[in-house]
Design brief:
about 130 residues, seven-stranded mixed β-sheet, four-stranded antiparallel β-sheet, mainly beta
Length: about 130
Amino acid sequence: QLQLVESGGGLVQPGGSLRLSCEASGSTLDYYDIGWFRQAPGKEREGVSCLSRSWVGANYADSVKGRFTISKDNAKNMVYLQMNSLKPEDTAVYYCAAPQMFRSGYGCSTKDYDHWGQGTQVTVSS
């Protein structure tokens, strides 16, 4: 029922910034935890940042702490990932995702997520 569509990826230089957006449809984000994941070539898909639907808190991978910020706007049914101080190691396809309705995805593990967007490419290169 829930559909997710990412946008905002592109090519940026090291040290630059991007904001990724994820638009939800078919249901309200009030019912869902939400997460951002990424997958680089030859690597496993990994959790980047996940957010509780109840705003208990946000969970970040160690590699992005202090640089990335996850947020959501329930009124607009949108989720965002603000990415600052980008590094070449951040190059990947980025996905937004949600677990089943009212289920926890705060641990930011791919196995807990059922709804996935199509992905958006982020390339960090000079």
